[in-house]
Write a structure and sequence with these properties.
- The chain has 5 helices and 6 strands; from the N terminus they run ββαβββααβαα.
- The strands form 3 sheets. It has a two-stranded antiparallel sheet. A two-stranded antiparallel sheet has the order 2-3.
- The radius of gyration is 16 Å and the shape is globular.
- The chain has a domain of about 90 residues.
- It starts with a strand and ends with a helix.
- With about 130 residues, it is α+β, with helices and mostly antiparallel strands.
- The structure holds zinc ion (ZN).
- Keywords: ATP-binding, Nucleotide-binding.
- Belongs to the GSP E family.
- GO terms for molecular function: ATP binding; ATP hydrolysis activity.
- It comes from Candidatus Azambacteria bacterium GW2011_GWA2_42_9.
């Protein structure tokens, strides 16, 4: 399954800012098909706050540690059977189509909104959102 490591933003020195209009539109588009089992802790709106990396003595250019973003899908019986047979990724992908999938971009946006990483870091690793 696809997974990427993003740098975690340092909580000591990060600066808070409101999301831009562009980011809001983008995030809304990305989260539109988010499976209902995934809950955002706070509503996504004009007042949503994200973090911006700064840098202090305790971190590296505003980042400290890593966080994984990944595609996730609910393990259905069908998928579980496939995993037990240790299937090729292609087979799993096929099965995943029938499950409710969380895309890597969706997982990344959720982690931005949870203030674990930044928009800049996400775009550096995943490309523009
Ligand atoms: Zn810091």
């Amino acid at each position: 399954m696809a997974q990427r490591l993003l740098r975690k933003v340092c909580q000591k020195c990060a600066e808070k800012r409101k999301i831009t209009k562009n980011e809001l539109d983008n995030f809304r588009k990305i989260l539109k098909n988010l499976p209902s089992r995934v809950k955002l802790e706070s509503e996504l709106n004009e007042e949503s706050v994200v973090l911006e990396a700064r840098g202090c003595k305790e971190c590296h250019n505003g980042y400290l540690g890593r966080v994984a973003v990944m595609e996730l899908f609910e393990i259905t019986d069908e998928v579980e059977k496939l995993i037990l047979k240790s299937p090729a990724e292609a087979e799993l992908r096929e099965a995943a189509k029938h499950a409710e999938m969380v895309s890597m971009a969706q997982d990344a946006v959720i982690k931005i909104l949870r203030r674990m990483t930044t928009v800049e870091e996400t775009e550096r690793i995943l490309g523009s959102l």
